[in-house]
TrEMBL record, chains A, B:
InterPro entries: Hexapep_loop, Transf_Hexapept/Carb_Anhydrase, Trimer_LpxA-like_sf. Pfam families: Hexapep_loop (PF18776). It comes from the Bacteria. Signal peptide: none annotated. Keywords: Transferase. This is Transferase hexapeptide repeat containing protein.
Length: 474, 474
């Protein structure tokens, strides 16, 4: 395993040289977070479809358990059980606009991951970086368990576990555990743990910070990379359900009887009594149990949905967990949100409501969220909603708002519109409105006929754990 | 499937342009032999080990169900459930001798398959072609079911089902069903069905032709590529046993408890009560049932061994079938031989005996083959051995011999020595004499830690059935 060890040293050096000035040393994390032998145990899989450019190249890397789709390059990196989903990359000829200036892409955008360590990380969407719109770059980056790198260029960035960087550009930043950042162009910033920060320059800014002592109950990473807390406890319960799935070569759909236009990844778990509606999408590594997923609804990577009902058009963003919940039409549950009802204390979410990214609703009594609400922060009782939710129409009329730990500044209408627009866009991208025409095809339809190349590393000798250099497609 | 169809047309044209003057038209064979949809159903697998150069490139091809190891290139070809085993290729710096002239290899030898269709074909060993010793070339070639291309350059060659071309160079040749040819440099020759022909220029020549009507009972290919006869009937009985093996991702050894130094491919079937001895090798696609495989013995691709005992040091060449047989030490069973005893009519083979390639022993009474014999041809009763076997010491003293349908001309000692040398070499190559030292390591030891990249074709659209271009390794 000499080469794998040298690779870890290399990544450590590249990240530390950028982040030591920010007070971060990733050496122990990289040494201990994942036992070395696991990097030999799991295969990587690259999806083939007719609808996405087949272009994949990796060199000097370990890709254990990682899923990849679309145009991707990986060099001198360790990707552990991560998802690199290039199905929303920009295409050659697309025109993009930055600050009012338009420019045309001269080739298909590529996700390029260099000198980085990603652990159970989701990489999706496309880059918002005007420097090179053709490259979604992840460079000298360490992303810990269940972090999301969503449409964000990261150069010299540390992401704590369950953190999300969304539609941004980040250079030498530290993102704390369970922080969510969607704040444009950031350089040399440290984001504290449990902060939810949404900012559109000159338009609006939303800020929330979890009360002291809360985030640690749900996410805690010690200096050796050992993760604890209620999130990982919850997820680990269902680990075994994935074992048979990963040990089978998927030559055809595992899950029959889905409705027309829907797609259930063969790498998803559907357990107990479930129904999956028309045009619904269940991504790989989603876990659905005793639930009804209505028409056009979706569950992205690392979503766990149990004993719940989705009436239709629901979005569960990457890492969203929804348990013992009844969710009305078009409800949105943001990244890594934890909507945790129990048998006795069910959660009901009214239609058109938005559960903001990184929201924890951990019910100790039944909770009902009115329709057309935005909810954020830490909610355990009905009364908590008073300071942690707002009616969206009210917000759209407001400018500056302070509610509990949250502040909102700027144009409420712009904020609400942006969210609404985004949800609509997500549904479109996922194929929720598919009517048989080419224009309405989305991920659910485009991945119907996906099959998977399964890639393994050397098992012994100095190369053990390294994947042989490989190029697929053009 | 337009591209796959065009690929078949391309191969047809390239082969026909060479072979039509020889009276061969492969159009209907290629059109009908394998239903098109099967080319989408089966995955290809490429083995990774520390001991073989990782260098694999394919373009514009279908590789359904094909296994590959070592340095291989495939272009504009269809490889259906074939085995391309590059573990005996020559290496950079090796010195080879042709007609007394020595030359040194300037790079690792590569198997290069272009414009060809191989169906359940075994490609193994290394090329004997002085033109470019670095390239084992298979060009404009159609090889039908269970044929063997063993150390033979083929350019514009048709191989009938269950035929073997061994250690030769062939240019525009037609090899009949179940023919075996090891005859140096051949051009524009048609080898009749059921001929066994071993020739070393200026030294010796062995010739045997099956009596009329026999080969057709065992192998028959109609003009549409439909195969019938006792061989395929026998093999098809065991088809289902391979299904679970191919539907599992092999992350570790399936078969535990093998003796030290032995290797059982995870893609082999071990069924019923079997023992596998020290340093034994069971290759992928071998099927072993209720049998004891002694120390250092081996079973190559497409071997079927049932209710049999191997005392040790036994070689079963590619496609050899041994049923209800007791086989003494160091017995050799050649390519595609069918040693078919029954419960009542067992076959016993004495130690050091050689069952020549393409021998059929289909017992209607118990048959005992004395030790140190060579056996060939078509044997159903003990008395048949009178004209179809010879004591090897006697042969070593003989020059010209005619026995039944067989003729032997030339130096008997050279013939016997060549065979003995080859068997010894096969055992060495397979690691039968492994004693823990590097010098004695062979295939059984070198493939211990193999793992497999699993490659799939596009499932829909015009690309359906085509594998995306791929490069693995240097």
């Amino acid at each position: 395993m000499e080469k794998l060890e040298a690779l870890f040293d290399h990544i450590t050096a590249r990240v530390n040289v950028n982040l030591k000035p920010m007070g971060i040393d990733v050496r122990n994390l990289l040494k201990n977070a994942i036992p070395r032998e696991r990097h030999l145990q799991y295969y990587a899989f690259y999806a083939l479809t007719e609808d996405h450019p087949i272009s994949f190249k990796f060199t000097h890397s370990n890709l254990a358990g990682t899923y990849m789709l679309g145009k991707t390059q990986v060099d001198r990196s360790v990707l552990y059980k991560s998802d690199v989903r290039g199905d929303e990359l920009k295409r050659k000829g697309d025109v993009v606009e930055f600050n009012g200036v338009k420019t045309k892409l001269f080739y298909d955008e590529v996700i390029r991951i260099i000198n980085s360590f990603l652990c159970k990380t989701l990489v999706h969407n496309h880059s918002k970086n005007p420097e090179v719109p053709e490259v979604f770059r992840i460079l000298n980056t360490v992303a810990m368990h269940y972090s999301n790198i969503h449409g964000t260029t990261t150069e010299g960035v540390y992401l704590g576990p369950f953190s999300t960087v969304d539609l941004s550009v980040m250079h030498n930043c530290v993102v704390g555990d369970y922080s969510y950042v969607q704040a444009g162009d950031l350089s040399r910033q440290t984001i504290e743990p449990g902060r939810v920060w949404v900012k559109a320059n000159g338009l609006f800014e939303f800020n929330y910070v979890y009360p002291e002592g809360v985030v640690e109950q749900y996410v805690k990473l010690d200096e050796n990379g050992k993760l604890s807390g209620k999130f990982i406890d919850y997820v680990d319960e269902f680990k075994e359900d994935f074992v048979p799935i990963y040990s089978t070569v998927q030559l055809e759909q595992m899950h029959g009887n889905e409705a027309e236009g829907s797609y259930v990844s063969p790498y998803a778990v559907i357990k107990g009594d479930c129904t999956i509606g028309k045009n619904a999408l269940i991504a790989q590594r989603a876990h659905i149990e005793n639930s009804s997923i209505g028409e056009g609804a979706n569950a992205q990577e690392n979503c766990y949905i149990k004993n719940s009902t989705y009436e239709g058009g629901n979005v569960t963003a990457h890492g969203g967990k929804v348990i013992n919940t009844t969710s009305g039409r078009n409800v949105f549950v943001g990244f890594n949100s934890f909507v945790h009802g129990t048998d006795e204390n069910r959660i009901t979410i009214g239609r058109d409501s938005i559960i903001m990214p990184h929201t924890i609703i951990d019910a100790v009594e039944p909770i009902t969220i009115p329709e057309n609400s935005a909810v954020w922060g830490y909610v355990t009782k009905q009364a908590d909603l008073e300071t942690q939710s707002v009616n969206l129409d009210d917000l759209a009329k407001a400018t500056d708002v302070k509610l509990g730990n949250a502040t909102f500044k700027g144009d409420g209408k712009a904020f609400v519109d942006a969210f609404r627009h985004r949800i609509q866009h997500i549904l479109e991208e996922n194929g929720a409105f598919y009517d048989g025409t080419d224009e309405t095809r989305g991920h659910a339809q485009k991945t119907q006929d996906a099959c998977f190349n399964i890639l393994q590393p050397f098992q012994s000798g100095p190369d053990a754990g390294m994947y042989p250099a490989m190029t697929i497609g053009g």
